[in-house]
TrEMBL record, chain A:
GO terms for biological process: cytochrome complex assembly. GO terms for cellular component: outer membrane-bounded periplasmic space. The keyword Membrane applies. It is found in: Cell envelope. This is Thioredoxin domain-containing protein. The chain crosses the membrane at residues 6-25. NCBIfam families: dsbE. Keywords: Cytochrome c-type biogenesis, Disulfide bond, Membrane, Redox-active center, Transmembrane, Transmembrane helix. InterPro entries: Periplasmic_diS_OxRdtase_DsbE, Redoxin, Thioredoxin-like_sf, Thioredoxin_CS, Thioredoxin_domain, Thioredoxin_ResA/DsbE_sf. Pfam families: Redoxin. Belongs to the thioredoxin family. DsbE subfamily.
From TrEMBL, chain B:
One of its GO terms (cellular component) is plasma membrane. Pfam families: CcmH. Keywords: Cytochrome c-type biogenesis, Heme, Iron, Membrane, Metal-binding, Signal, Transmembrane, Transmembrane helix. One of its GO terms (molecular function) is metal ion binding. Gene3D superfamilies: Cytochrome C biogenesis protein. This is CcmH/CycL/Ccl2/NrfF N-terminal domain-containing protein.
């Protein structure tokens, strides 16, 4: 008993150290999404391509797709654009854009200048759909499966490493699921 | 010149304090919302203070100027005007942004330590203090650290020697 008491400070230190060690690797910037494994929220919004005509969940691909929240003001979006362009050219997966808190003109100009990787560009100029998606700033990227369920969320820029290590495995998994 | 500089330093502090107060006011006044009752306005203020801005993380919705915070304030306004209860508004936020949006975390298994950790540490502190006090109370001098026979003999010898030295000097 006396020996145990002697070790109490060491034990206390060990417990603290474990918590703090874990704390070092907690990323407080990326919040876990509560929408994971939930269906994509409904919407009725314009699309850049359709003018005043509204689009909804039914207009989204039946197969797995990427939903990318972007804006012409968003520098990281520019950074990930070539990756999405390549994905579109290689036919890896359809990508749907949500033009978040932007203006149509600026969005069109951006797509003309930098290339348009999106099969459809939904216009969320008020940011209201972003709230339903739990978005807090562009860029954010969701992977949606063929049932319309959100399977993955990436917050912030997707670089080549993130694409290869995080995004591609999920895409492969949901596409394999869709085929079976 | 010296006192002048001191004064101007003080003035600067006062000025900065005032500016920070004013800018808080200014930020809160960015949105112009009209309410039908004072109670609605109060609820809007309370709720905006209660939720945390997901973008800036260390500010509530009231003090965050940024994009998504303004959008969320707009949603709070809309829901208040639609007559939704505070619980419904909180559920709306939780369904989209999760527990993070709450400055006051809910009591779940995960937040158990967060809620009762301080109490736990207080109890540990009380226990430690109690044991120390009890020990110092019960241990009368000599009882805990009594000398064994050898030490007793040595002490006697030392004392005797000291007395001897003293009488020698005298």
């Amino acid at each position: 008993m006396k020996n145990l008491k002697l070790y109490l400070p060491v034990i206390g230190f060990a417990v603290l150290a474990v918590f703090m060690w874990r704390g070092l690797y907690l990323d407080s910037r990326t919040l876990p999404s509560v929408l994971l494994d939930r269906p994509l929220p409904e919407f009725e919004l314009r699309a850049l391509e359709t003018g005043d005509q509204l689009v909804s969940l039914e207009d989204l691909p039946d197969e797995p797709f990427i939903l990318n929240i972007w804006g012409s003001y968003c520098l990281p979006c520019l950074q990930e654009n070539p990756i999405f362009m390549a994905a579109r050219e290689q036919g890896i997966i359809p990508i749907v854009g949500v033009n978040y808190k932007d203006t149509d003109d600026a969005a069109r100009e951006w797509l003309d200048d930098n290339g348009n990787p999106f099969t459809l560009s939904i216009v969320d100029d008020t940011g209201r759909y972003g709230i339903d998606l739990g978005v807090y700033g562009a860029p954010e990227t969701f992977i949606v499966d063929s049932q319309g369920v959100i399977r993955y969320k990436h917050i912030g820029v997707i670089d080549y490493q993130a694409w290869d290590d995080e995004i591609m495995p999920v895409i492969a998994a949901v596409q394999a699921e869709a085929r079976s | 010149m010296m006192p002048m500089r001191v004064v101007s330093g003080f003035a600067l502090i006062v000025m900065l304090t005032l500016v920070s107060l004013v800018s808080d006011e200014a930020q809160a006044a960015i949105d112009v919302y009209e309410f039908e009752t004072v109670e609605q306005e109060q609820r809007f203020r309370d709720l905006s203070n209660e939720f945390r801005c997901p973008m800036c993380q260390n500010a509530n919705l009231t003090s965050s100027p940024g994009g998504v915070a303004a959008d969320l304030r707009r949603e709070i306004y809309r829901m208040i005007m639609e007559g939704q209860t505070d619980q419904e508004i909180e559920a709306f936020m939780l369904a989209r942004y999760g527990d993070f949006i709450l400055y006051r975390p809910r009591l779940t298994m995960q937040t158990l330590l967060l809620w009762f950790g301080p109490l736990l540490f207080l109890l540990i502190g009380i226990w430690v203090a109690f044991t120390i006090m009890r020990r110092s109370g019960t241990e009368s001098p000599g009882s805990g650290e009594s000398l064994n026979a050898d030490e007793e003999a040595r002490l006697k010898k030392l004392l005797a020697q000291k007395n001897q030295d003293a009488s020698d000097q005298a």
